[in-house]
């Protein structure tokens, strides 16, 4: 059985952790790998590697850092479909949905390649008698990213390329449910010429996250995920004196006015409801039909009945499976509650 490696100081290494968690293919519930829950020593090693790398990486000219990102985005595009296939097996997404996940991440790496224009400071002459002011934008140091299961390419690529291009170093803790896509992302990052220690990856759950949140050598934390976890991360990291950026779950309402274009609106509503099997913060979970738009409900029901699930390479599938049995049961329970409440 494949055991997912950690990535510390430029090398993939096998964890010494005794505790592991199975990684399931959501489509058939087959175990495709085992992911280790990194030991406290391994988390410390990853942070120490990033801290040591920061001392030299922060001095690398910004144009050179940007060139790493230029090479990286080119490699990601070259391996776009391969990444999407890995991601499909990781998450259960359809191939088209997975390709969108990868591409949105690539767009952020393209922006990271443009980092010099975002790192320019400011000057103001004669702000007072004989006094000029100026400011520099400087990297913080070691930063950590904690990413969710639903976008295992896009969201890590939101985080570490921009942070690293700005001169920081990074410790990534991806979702333990989908660890295979980040491994391939890191392999391509190495190929792009990233030096040792600039990017590190550990696996785990709440224990490993909490260690990162209070680690004295980590300066900032970025998180995407549920509101419950995000609230804990924000409070804990802030109390430890760190900058915290937490993007948490949403409850999205679509208000449909009677003068909207019916065909495009219903198509958009169906897509926004079932895309990624509804497991995304942009999903529409509440639709409010105003006035005569209420008459469109039968047609919406018709279109929803045509949207069907399927495995990742089923070209006719509208969406893939829910990430886990527990998540599936939660959806079934919510549907039951909705029926009970009329």
Describe the structure concisely for a colleague.
The chain is α/β, with parallel strands linked by helices and 342 residues long. The protein has 2 domains: 243 residues, Aldehyde Dehydrogenase, Chain A, domain 1, CATH 3.40.605.10; 89 residues, Aldehyde Dehydrogenase, Chain A, domain 2 (3-Layer(aba) Sandwich). The chain has 11 helices and 13 strands.
Notes on the structure:
It is a single chain. The chain is an alpha/beta fold. It has helices at about 40-55, 60-80, 80-90, 95-110, 155-165, 180-190, 205-215, 225-240, 260-275, 295-305, 325-340; strands at about 5-10, 10-15, 20-25, 30-35, 120-130, 130-135, 140-145, 170-175, 200, 220-225, 245-250, 250-255, 285-290. The strands form five sheets. It has a five-stranded parallel β-sheet, with helices on both faces. Strands 1-2 form a two-stranded antiparallel sheet. Strands 3-4 form a two-stranded antiparallel sheet. α3 crosses α4. The termini are far apart. The model has no long low-confidence stretch (mean pLDDT about 95).
């Amino acid at each position: 059985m494949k055991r997912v490696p950690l990535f510390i100081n430029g090398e993939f290494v096998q964890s010494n952790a005794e505790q592991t968690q199975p990684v399931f293919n959501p489509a058939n519930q087959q175990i495709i790998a085992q992911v280790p829950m990194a030991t406290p020593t391994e988390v410390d090693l990853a942070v120490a590697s990033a801290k040591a790398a920061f001392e030299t990486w922060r001095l690398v000219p910004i144009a050179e850092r940007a060139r790493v990102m230029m090479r990286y985005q080119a490699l990601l595009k070259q391996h776009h479909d391969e990444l999407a296939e890995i991601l499909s097996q990781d998450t259960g997404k359809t191939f088209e949905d997975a390709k969108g996940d990868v591409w949105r991440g690539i767009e952020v790496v393209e922006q990271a390649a443009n980092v010099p224009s975002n790192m320019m400071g400011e000057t103001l002459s004669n702000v007072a008698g004989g006094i000029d002011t100026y400011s520099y934008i400087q990297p913080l140091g070691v930063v950590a990213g904690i990413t969710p299961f639903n976008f295992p390419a896009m969201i890590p690529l939101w985080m570490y390329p921009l942070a690293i291009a700005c001169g920081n170093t990074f410790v990534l803790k991806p979702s333990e449910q989908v660890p295979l896509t980040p491994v391939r992302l890191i392999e391509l990052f190495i190929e792009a010429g990233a030096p040792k220690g600039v990017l590190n990856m550990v696996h785990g759950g709440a224990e490993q996250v909490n260690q990162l949140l209070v680690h004295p050598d980590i300066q900032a934390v970025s998180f995407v995920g549920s509101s419950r976890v995000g609230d804990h991360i924000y409070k804990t990291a802030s109390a430890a004196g760190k900058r915290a950026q937490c993007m948490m779950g949403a409850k999205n309402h679509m208000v449909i006015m009677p003068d909207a274009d019916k065909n495009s609106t219903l198509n958009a509503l169906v897509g926004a409801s079932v895309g990624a099997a509804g497991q995304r913060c942009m999903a529409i979970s509440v639709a409010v039909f105003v006035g005569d738009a209420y008459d469109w409900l039968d047609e919406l029901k018709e279109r929803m009945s045509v949207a069907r699930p399927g495995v990742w390479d089923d070209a006719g599938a509208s969406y893939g499976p829910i990430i886990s049995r527990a998540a599936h049961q939660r959806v079934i329970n919510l549907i039951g509650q909705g029926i009970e409440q009329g």
